[in-house]
Amino acid sequence: MKNTPKRKQRNKPGVVLFTAVAVMLMLSILLTATVSYVSVNRTKTNDNYKSKQAYLTASSTLESFINQIQTDTAPTNDPTAKAQQKKAIDNLKKLASANSGKGTTTNVSYNGSNGKSDNIGTTKITVAQEGTSAKYIVVTCETTYLGKTEKVAAHISTHPVPKPAEYTNTIELVGNGGAGYDNLNVIGDMAGINNTTGKIYRFTNNTSIYGSYLMYGSLEVSTQPLIMLKPSLVDEKQGSTVTISENLDVSNEFHINSTMARADGYNYVNIGQKLSTSNHMDVGSSGFDVDLFCCEANIGGNDYTQYGNFYVYKGAGAYNGDATFGANGQTINGSLYVEGDLNVTKSLKVTGSVYVTGTITGKDKIVCTASNIHEGAVLSKAGRDAKPQIPVSADAYVYYPEDFFMSNDTNVTTISDQYQAFYDGSNTKTFNTFASDWTNVDYTLTELIDLTGTGAKTPVTSRYKLRITSSCTWASDLSFNDYGNGSRILVDVSDSSGDIVIRLQNGLNLGAEWSPVIVVRNRSTIIDTTTGDRKYNCYFVSDSGSAITLNGIDSVTGKSQHSGSSACNYSFKGLKVFDYDTYVRMFDSSVLNNTKGNPGLPQSGFVLNPTSVDVAGSYRPKNSSIIFLFGENTTLNATDQSFFQGSFYSPQAIVNIATSGLGGLVVTDSAGGKMTVQCCAVGVVIANSFGNANTAFYVYTKPSTTSVMQNAKGGKDDYAYGYELDRYDHY
Predict the structure, then answer these.
(1) What is the pTM of this model?
(2) Strands, E, within 586-631: which ranges?
C-alpha cells in the first residue's frame, strides 16, 4: 500500500466516466442502503492512457462518493435533517458490516451510446469495515479499464461529535462583571454573554463597533461612541443588530448608524428595559433605517434624531410601555408606537404615524399629520412591528482550557499528551534547546507563493533568527544578545510536528528591549474536506500545572467543572505574532530579509480582508491556526505596540491588550470600502475580563475548525452524526 497525499489531477480525459454517477449512487447507498447498477456513457480513449484512465476514473468516483457522504452528514441544527444525517451514517455502517465486515461491493458497468453493454471495463465500489468495528470504514474503488486495473481507497471514521462551535464575535466577554471601554474599536461583532443581571458596561472616548453588539446588562454611553451596523463577517447575507438586555443610558452623544438599507431581520436596536437620553442620540440615517425597540423611554436633553420606527412595548415588571419625549430637537423619520402612555413636553416631529394604546399628553406638541395620530390604538406587533426576542442566554461554553490540557477524551482534546509532557518530564525542551541546534539558527526559508491571487507563484524568501519545530516551553533562558531586539522566531507546523504546543513559562516577562516577532507557518498536508483548514495547529498555553482535576459535567449548568489550575501572569511589550501567509504578504523583502528589528508598517498596497467574501486587491486570511489557551486566573498584559494574529480562548482569564498595536493596516469591507487602522489583534478574543487602552482596532477572523476550540461549545443534545476523512490511499 502506498500513501499518496496528493492525487493526480482530475481534469484529464476520461474523468467524465464517473464524476456524476457516484453522486447518484451514493444517494441510493446512504438513504436506502441498497445498491444498484449505474450506466454511463462511454468516452473515447487511447490505449496509451489505459492505466491513467483507470486511475482517474477510480479516484474521481471515490472523491464524488466521499463528497456525497460529506453533503449528507453536514452539521445541522434542524431536527429532521439531523435524523436524516444519522440515518445516512447508520446505513453506511450497515453496508460496511455486511458479510462479516467484508462489506458490500457494487459493480458498475459502462454502456455505449446505443445503450448496450460494452465489455470495456468495470468499476467495483466496496464499503467495508477496517478492523473489527464499523466505526472505521474503508471505501475502495477499483477500476479495470481495457485490461488495466487501478485501485484507490478512502479511510474514514464515523462517530457522533458535538456540534462544532461557532465563533462570531471579535471580542466576547464571559465574566459576570461589568467593564469600561476607552477608545475600543471593533471590526466585527462584540458581545457580553454572561446573563447576570445588574452588570454595567461603559463606552467612552470614541469607542466604535463596526458590526453587531449583544450584551446582557446595561450600557452607559458618553463621549461620542459609534455603532456602525455592517453585514455579518460570518455571513455577508445577514445584517446586524444591537441587543441590550437591560437599560441604555446616553449622557453624551451616541450614534447608531448602518451601511445597509433596512430589511426584515436586521437593522434594529433592541433594549430589554429603559432607554434614557440626555444629550444627542442619532439612530439610522436617510435611506438606512434602523428601528428601535424598548420597554420604557425617557428622551431628554438635546437632540434625538432617528431614521426608522420607534417602538415602546410593555415589558416585565414595572415596564408599562410608557414614553416621554422632552428633548430640545427630536425627530422620528418613521412611525412611533407606544403600548403605554405617551407624554410629549417639547416639539416632536414624526414623519410617519403615531400609534398609542394608552393616552397622549401634549398632543399639540406632536408635529405630524393630525389624521396619522391614533390614540387608543391596537398594536399588531406583527411583521416589522414585532419586537425581536432577547435570547435567554447565549451559546454557553461547555469545555475550558483545563479540559484541553488534561482530558483523556479525544472527542474533547487533541493536545493533552503534549501539555502533560511538560510536567511528567518527557518534554524538557525550551526555545533555547532549538537555539543550541545550528540547523534552526539564522534560518532562511524560500517558498513559492501566490502573492496576487491569480495562481501565479513567485519565490519569496524570509529569514528568521530561530526556528521552532516541535512542542516546547517558552522560558526566560534565551540570550538577550542573540535573541533580543525584535528577533524573528519561526514556529514551523508540519505533518511530522503535529500540533505544536508552546507552554508560556509562568512569570514570563519580556520588556520592550526584547519585542519578539513570532511567525507561525502551517504546512500540514491533511486538510479538512469541509473547511479547507489544516489538521494541525499551533497553541500557546498557560503554565497552569498538572494538578488540575476535571470534576465532570455539572448537572445544572451543563458545563465542565475543574479545580487545581495554577494562576499565571505574563507581561509582554512589543510582542508581535503573525500567521506566516499573512506576514509574507504584509511586508516587503526589505523586512522579510531581516532576522531582527521592528517590522514597521505594512507595505503599500496590502489590504486585509476580514469578510466572508473575496474582494479584489485584498488578502483574506484563512481561519486562524494560532490559538492562545489561558487557564483560570491567568492574566496577560500586552503593551507597547504588541500585535496578535490568532484567537484567544480564555473564558476564566484576564486579557489586557493595552497597546496601540500595528500601525497603518488597511482593512476592507465586502463592498471594497477601505479604512486604515492601528490594529491590536486579528482573530477572536474570548475572556472573562478584557482591558484595552489607546485608539486601536480589533479585527475579526475565526479560529481554525480543526482546533480544540471547535469542542468548547455543544454537548450531548447537540451531537452531529458525521465522519472524519483520515486519508486517501493508492494501491
Answers:
(1) 0.77
(2) 607-608, 626-629
